[in-house]
Every structure is written in structure tokens, then in C-alpha cells.
Amino acid sequence: MTERLYYLDPYLKEFTARVVRATDKGVVLDRTAFYPTGGGQPCDLGTLNGIEVTDVLEDGHDVIHAVSSPVEGEVRGVIDWDRRRDHMQQHHGQHLLSEAFVRVAKAQTSSFHLGRQGCSIDLDQNVAPVDIERAETLANMVIYENRPVQIGFFGPEEAKSLPMRKPPPSEDRIRVVTVNEYDCQACCGTHPRTTGEVGVVCVTGVERQKATTRVHFMCGYRALTEARENARIVRSIGQKLSAGRDDLEKAVDRIQADFSETRKQLNAAERKLAEQLGKELAARGRVVVEVFEGKGIDYLRAVATAVALTPNKVAVLGGTGETSSVVISRSPDLTLDLRPLFKDVLAPIQGKGGGTAHFVQGGGPGGDVRAALKVAEEKILANLGA
Ligand SMILES: [Zn+2]
User: Fold this and answer.
1) Tens digits of per-residue pLDDT, 112-151?
2) Half-sphere CA count of 207, side-chain side, radius 13 A
């Protein structure tokens, strides 16, 4: 059984110990300050005799340290303190936030995730945005009050009398983390001496479902680096839009409005151009075949419709680009039904489509639009007769 030094002193950064057993996963020490992955908190990293510890995991009562090369005998362990402090800030911040949600919205935390990028808790209710903000504020007030955090061990009967946020696990010896007059929770993780060390709890995102809510958050130094990055992005966007932070939203609204107006005008101009082009193409012959590079189906439809305004015309138009499109339109005075022949036309572009007797359209990922138009032209000429 490995004695867990971090249980009573989570600030222990260096320690000496003895290797008692080597396994295929790593070495077991008689005592350790390395926290093994568990309870939502990732493991500590660091070194044993200067050799890198790459993973720390529980094996029953033992703690296994995976190392990058073999170690034996007496060892001096050093914890990666930046990583541990980060985990302590995130994990304790989670306790404060979880209790805040109980107090504000009677919402219990059903799971906790502490990742490299961000942390999240899942709540067992759909929590309103206003309550999320209230809970965030409450957790931060408890941080500002810098309340003492106590760690204690209790038997199962004793634990029953404690005001636990959630029922404790059924163990002989239950470790309990208490925030003075605020929170009481069974937990094996590493926690600071006072709430103030969490620095800040910042909700960074919310995913609300019918009956649950996932709350993303960051605490302490992570929140500072996040705020720095956010400020940098805001400055950079502000420079691009020549707007200060407070005017950014208005500036984006203006650009979006301008863009949609420009798009409308462009579409109208393209439609006019297409109609003009349709008239010109109609003058060429009875069956007009044309490929438009980089043009989509809307454009083809406009041109084809314009061609068919002139009596006794069939427009067979193709468009290329990310996908291939084919549009065929005929004048109302012709009787040819375009639908039966369209399937064969679409084959070279692996396309799908359909339409009416006088108008069909389709598109596909395939590239050979010209082959598709050739099939169409042949079939149409054969069906129209001379
Ligand atoms: Zn915990």
C-alpha cells in the first residue's frame, strides 16, 4: 500500500521514497506525493531521480508511476508544480461552482471533466442563464472571502452526520473536503488551504439541453491566460474594423447589413445579365449548348429560362465548380418531355435531379459536364426530329 502524502499535504512538491515493486506499467513506491488520475482530476507529472514520470495511476491501494527509464531503490520525487497548482485551482473551483448551483438552482453536478483546454460540469437540470450567472457570482464571492478549506477523514457513520453535497462513497475511511460554512464533499483530490487560491471561476460556455446543462468554466491562471487571449482577439478585430471594443458589435452588424445589401444587388445584376445572355444564345440555333465555368445552378436556371422565352428553343446548360450542374429548359410551344432523358444526362456527373416536362435541373460531384451536355444534345435532337 502506497502512503499518499498529498492527502494531508497537497503542497508537498518534493519527497523521498523507496521503490517497493516494479510492474509492467511502472514502479510502486512506499509513499508518494504524485496524485494518480482519479475523481475527475488528471494525474501529476514530474520526475523520480530526474527521470520523467509520464503517467500515474491507481492499482488498488498502490500508486503506479510510469517512468521513461527504469528507477530503483531510494528515489527523490519532484512534482510538476505548475501542473498541480492548475489542477488544484480547477478542481477546487469546481467544488465551489457545484455548491453554488445547488444553492442557486437546486441543481446537482452529475459529472466533472478537467481537460487540458477546459473544464466542465454536467448539471441534472436545465438551468436558466440568469441562474448560471448568479451561481458564477456566488462561487467568486466565496473565493473573495478567502474561506479556509479543511481536509478530514471520517468513518461511514460519522460521515452520515455531515452536510454532504452528495452521498459519500461506501468506504471505511472517507476523505472529506470542507469549505468553511459553504461546502462539504467527499473527494480524494488535491485542494488548496483557502478558497482565495482559486483566484477566479469564470463560466466560458453553456450547453443547455431539455433536462441537463453542461457548464464550461476556467479557474485561476487558466482564466487569466484565456482573458489575455480574448483581449488580444478583441484588439485585433477592433483594429481591422477600426472600432473600439464597445463599438465592435455595431461594426459587425453594419458589415453584415452592407454585405447582404451588396449580395442582393449583385444577384439582381446577374439575373439581368443572364436574361440578356439568354436572348443572345437563343439567336444561335434551335438547341443551345453552353458550359459556364464556376457558375452555380441559380445562374444556369436564369439563362436557360431566358433562352426558352423565345419560341422553338431548347437550352442545355452546364456549370462547373465545386460541384457540376446541368439545367435544360425548352420553350412552351415544343412538346418534348425532358424528364425521361434526364437520367442518362446526369450519369456522367453522378448527378441527381428532376423537374417538369419543360424544365429539368440537377447536380453532382462528378466532373464531366461536357459529356453530360453531349448526351443531352444527342437525345434532344433525336426526339425533336428534323
Ligand atoms: Zn472533488
Assistant:
1) 999 998 999 999 999 999 999 999 999 999 999 999 999 9
2) 5
Q: What is the pLDDT of residue 271?
A: 84
CA of 357 to the centre of ligand 1 (A): 69
Name the pairing type of β-strands 3-4 and 31-32.
parallel
Question: Using alpha carbons only, what angle is made at residue 227 by residues 223 and 228, rounded to the nearest 5 degrees?
Answer: 120
| CA–CA distance, 342 with 64 (Å, rounded to integer) | 68
Percent of the chain whose pLDDT exceeds 90: 90
Distance 150 CA to ligand 1 centre (A): 13
Q: In angstroms, what is the span from residue 185 Cα to ligand 1's centroid?
A: 7
- Strand order of the β-sheet with 324-330 is 287-292, 314-319, 324-330, 359-364, 352-355
Ligand 1 centroid from CA 134, angstroms: 22
Query: How far apart are the CA of 299 and the centre of ligand 1, in A?
Result: 60
Distance CA 29, CA 73 (A): 9
How far away, in angstroms, is 39 Cα from ligand 1 center?
Answer: 6
pLDDT below 50 — which residues of the chain?
none
pTM: 0.78
Which single residue is written with the C-alpha cell 472600432?
Answer: 243
What is the distance in A from the centroid of ligand 1 to the CA of 177? 8
**Distance between CA atoms of residues 190 and 171, nearest Å:** 19
Beta-strand runs (E) in the chain = 3-4, 14-22, 27-29, 31-32, 46-48, 51-59, 62-67, 74-79, 109-114, 119-123, 149-154, 174-179, 183-186, 201-208, 213-219, 287-292, 314-319, 324-330, 352-355, 359-364
pLDDT at 386: 52
Q: How far is the CA of 153 from the centre of ligand 1 (A)?
A: 14
pLDDT, position 270: 85
Residue with the three cell numbers 473573495: 144
* Contact between residue 11 and residue 45 where contact means Cβ atoms under 8 Å apart: no
Q: How far is the CA of 100 from the centre of ligand 1 (A)?
A: 14
How far away, in angstroms, is 52 Cα from ligand 1 center? 27
